[in-house]
Design a protein that fits this description.
It is a multi-pass membrane protein. This protein is mainly α and 267 residues long. It has a domain at 46-110. The chain is 79% helix and 0% strand. It is globular. The chain starts with 11 loop residues before the first helix and ends with a helix.
Length: 267
């Protein structure tokens, strides 16, 4: 009896190709996972950068304008502590001279520490919340259906800015209240510092005492920040479309200044 032996020959084009395809698929998945991880890390770094940039910028700007802010607060509460004759003679120069003579030059920055303590989280939350609200608003079906619509972009910047301002102001309002009360002190010292002011208000007025005036503040902050972000984004887009080679710093400073003036005037 003759036995026929058959030897199976592997065709590289079929059996071997399947193995190579599996390796390529695994390699592709690994590369995709690496790209997703890098993208997530970049997003986290971008978020931290936004928070830090917003906080530092807010704290620096408030420190530079602290003397004017102190004078503003003193003029606002002057009627509570002065007689009619003093009020008639009130002026910026007279009040500034009084501060230097009675309290010293450093008194212009009275309450500035709590201003920075308030401004760092406020500005950080403001910028971060604005970016998040903007992303959410762009995901709305009504907005997604409109490509490159200027009015839709303007509306998103306005609504996102308003919501961001309300969110940041609500979260940091107790520090804003303490800042105002510390800055309003003149010769009589009732609050010895940030922590003492928070404790005193909490004991004497309760938790709600830390949020006195929040409603009125939100009515001003919401529209103000909404106008600020809308004007800033609109001006920056227009400027960069007309003069794309101008310095980014120059564009940001100019648009930021004009948006601040617009928000203050509109508010």
């Amino acid at each position: 009896m003759q036995t026929e032996a058959r030897v199976g020959v592997v065709n590289p084009g079929h059996g071997g190709g399947g193995g190579n395809s599996g390796v390529e698929t695994t390699s592709l998945k690994f590369k995709q996972q690496q790209q997703e991880l890098l993208q997530a890390q970049k997003t986290q770094i971008g978020t931290v950068s936004q928070l830090l940039a917003g906080g530092v910028a807010g704290a620096l700007s408030k420190t530079c304008t602290a003397p004017l802010a102190r004078l503003t607060i003193l003029f606002q509460v002057q009627g509570m502590h002065s007689d009619a004759a003093t009020l008639r003679k009130a002026s910026i120069w007279r009040e500034a001279s009084r501060i230097v003579g009675e309290e010293g030059f450093r008194a212009f920055w009275k309450g500035n520490l709590v201003t920075i303590a308030h401004r760092l989280p406020y500005s950080s939350l403001n910028f971060y919340a604005y970016e998040q609200y903007k992303k959410l608003l762009y995901m709305l079906p009504v907005v997604e259906s409109r490509d490159e619509n200027i009015s839709a972009d303007l509306c998103i910047h306005f609504v996102g800015g308003g919501l961001a301002g309300i969110t940041a102001a609500s979260a940091t309002y107790p520090l804003d209240l303490v800042r105002t009360r510390l800055a309003a002190q003149t010769n009589v010292t009732y609050y010895r510092g940030i922590w003492h002011a928070l404790q005193t208000i909490f004991k004497e007025e309760g938790v709600l005492g830390l949020y006195k005036g929040l409603g009125a503040t939100l009515l001003g902050v919401g529209p103000s920040i909404a106008i600020s972000f809308s004007v800033y984004e609109g001006l920056r887009s227009f400027w960069q479309s007309q003069r794309p080679h101008d310095s980014t710093v120059l564009v940001s400073l100019s648009c930021g200044s004009l948006s601040g003036i617009a928000s203050s005037t509109g508010n």
